Amino acid sequence: MKNLFVGNLSFQTTEGDLRNMFATFGQVSRVHIATDRETGQARGFAFVEMANDAEATKAMTDLNGKEVNGRALRVNEATPRPERGAPGAGGRPSFNRSSSGPGAGRSGPGAGRNGPPRGNSGGGNRGGGGQSRDRFSNEDYREAPRQPREPRW
Q: Which residue of 24, 132, 136, 149 sits 20 to 30 Å from the alpha carbon of 123, by its own alpha carbon?
């Protein structure tokens, strides 16, 4: 079983068109044309799943570059979708986009955040010993007015 990516599709191409095109090479298990969530319009690419790997490879080599509805198809083996963030993250950008540096490889609360580590980090008059002032605690903000929270959209 092989999953093929078909790119540069015309927006008028239907599942039936793709199924007929690939059926000449072998059994087609599934055809999925990606559509826009809001408009329902095709996004210009699809996935075709074929039962036999040899037939899928033959279809890939023969159809790649073939012109259909005025567009040259791009056909290759589909790669797995990359891992995405946790559900409910709201698509907010991460503060630490690099794979190295503070927070890299960490998980859990505070992962990927820049800045000092959380926890008992000294500061204030609570026996921090020789701790430097680049670390802070809640005592540093005792007299500061509380900032309003931004709404969660």
A: 149
